Amino acid sequence: MSRKLLLSGGCLRPNGFELGEGKYYGKASLVMLDTQTGEFSQALSKTEGGENYPNEHPNLQFTAGCVDGDDLWLPTDTEVHRYSLPDLTLKSVFSHPCFHNIHSVHLIDDKVVATSTGLDNVVVMNKETGDIDKIINTQGKDPWHRFDQETDYRMVHSTRPHDSHPNFVFKLDKDLWVTRCTQEDAVNLNNVEQRIDISQGGEVSVHDGILWQDKLVFTRVDGKLVFCDPVSKTHIETFDPFGSALSRPIGWCRGLYAEGDIFYVGYSKLRKTNLKAKIKFLSKGNFKYSSGNNSLVVALNIKTRKVENVFTSPDGLIDAIYGIMPFHYD
Question: Parallel, antiparallel, or unpaired: how do β-strands 71-75 and 191-197 relate?
Fold first, then answer.
């Protein structure tokens, strides 16, 4: 079991909402969580942009990364960073004009696979050079059907509204699949007609998708987990870790790591948003968290269906959580 976890995310600017879309976060933050002591500590941070970011108010956050052996792959909105573990030495940075609002990066079949969420595309790259092998539109269309191939989208703060808003890529059978926030589903990138209906007709956005034992598990931003059959591609169960409890976290649920029967689930601190329809799930009559809460990680024993622990982050360390990854070192 991993005693320590890495949490990737960002810290809100005090005036981020007033600045507008694509300017909310002023510090990218990678945080270490010791699950035995409950201690949070800063592992990495980034407070300045650079040549691959807008000149003013760059949106600085570490989004959902992955661990591959002794390498940590960690994206920002416009870059993919490769760090060595356990020392977190930066080894390389990949960036392309087609990167915008990257939400996740994955190592699949020895390829780097990134969701360029702002362009509704998935970008597949060479692991060593960062050269692009292919760009796949998440609606089965030409990747440039509504964007200009000559524009450097790293310099653009926001491209909203997004047609599909891809969040997270996973491999099923021999194909790449991606979760789509707008459609509230997951689709086969080789055939987008093949889809998994995650929200079951609801209006709750989906985020992570991982294969756990013989099931697919997805996070919904309202804090519920959705279990699906990877063979039939059908819904099995929607599970609420907090059930009918009136003391439940308020937050944007995103970030999932499973180790044995323990699921670690991330909840981001809520921020102001113009997308009111996306937060209709917020509960009323909530006692403990009625005034909101910092970001936190919930440890759920999926075998007993009980929440074993709730780790609440200190002020100013990490407001948004995108990814939860193991740290297998002392």
Answer: unpaired
pLDDT of 283 > 60? The answer is: no
- The answer to whether the CB of 327 falls within 8 A of the CB of 6 is yes
Question: Got the DSSP string for 15-45?
Answer: THHHH-TT--EEEEEEEEEETTT--EEEEEE
How far is the CA of 143 from the CAs of 113, 114, 213, 292, in angstroms?
15, 14, 34, 39
What angle is formed at CA 158 by the lines to CA 154 and CA 159, rounded to 5 degrees?
95
User: Smallest Cα–Cα separation from 243: which of 305, 304, 308?
Assistant: 305
Query: Rounded to whole angstroms, how far apart are CA atoms 194 and 230?
Result: 12
CATH number where 88 lies: 2.130.10.10
Give pLDDT, residue 287: 47
Amino acid (one-letter) located at 127: K
Query: By C-alpha distance, which of 97, 216, 100 is closest to 149?
Result: 97
Residues contacting residue 25 through CB under 8 Å, at least 6 positions apart: 10, 11, 12, 13, 16, 59, 60, 61, 319, 320
**DSSP three-state, residue 154:** helix
Instruction: Give the range of the structural domain holding residue 172, as residue numbers without chain letter.
Output: 4-327
The pTM score is: 0.94
Number of domains in the chain: 1
